[in-house]
Amino acid sequence: MPERQPHPIRAALLGAFAGGIAVGAIYLLVVFSDPHAFTSSSTAPIGLFFLPFYTAVHAIPGAIAGAALGAVIEIWRSRLAAG
């Protein structure tokens, strides 16, 4: 019987979600860290419209990292189970 191959789909989805949330939180912290950001320029609030694009773009590396980490953990578990 062939050895079970790792399927890190769940880890990739969790990595993408975590990457998107982390980038979104950092972006919002940077935007709201300056209390005068919205009063100094009339176009400053437009930056908030780009938040979904930033999170989507940065969720891709999170998915890759999550998939890689999931594969490593799955291989590690299978080797420990095999003894």
Structural overview:
By secondary structure, the protein is mainly α. It has one domain (about 10-80). Helix content is about 75%, strand content about 0%. The protein is built from three helices and no strands. The model has no long low-confidence stretch (mean pLDDT about 75).
Question: Summarize this, please?
Answer:
The chain is mainly α. Helices cover 73% and strands 0% of the residues. The protein has one domain (9-82).
How many helices? The count is 3
Rg is 19 Å
Strand-residue proportion: under 5%
Largest sheet: none
The beta-strand count equals 0
Oligomer designation: single chain
Helix and strand sequence: HHH
- The residue-averaged pLDDT reads 76
Q: How would you describe the shape? A: rod-shaped
* Termini Cα gap: 17 Å
Task: Detail the topology: elements first, then pairings.
Layout lengths: L8 H25 L3 H4 L10 H32 L1
Helix pairs in contact: 1-3
Structure keywords:
83 residues; mainly alpha; 73% helix
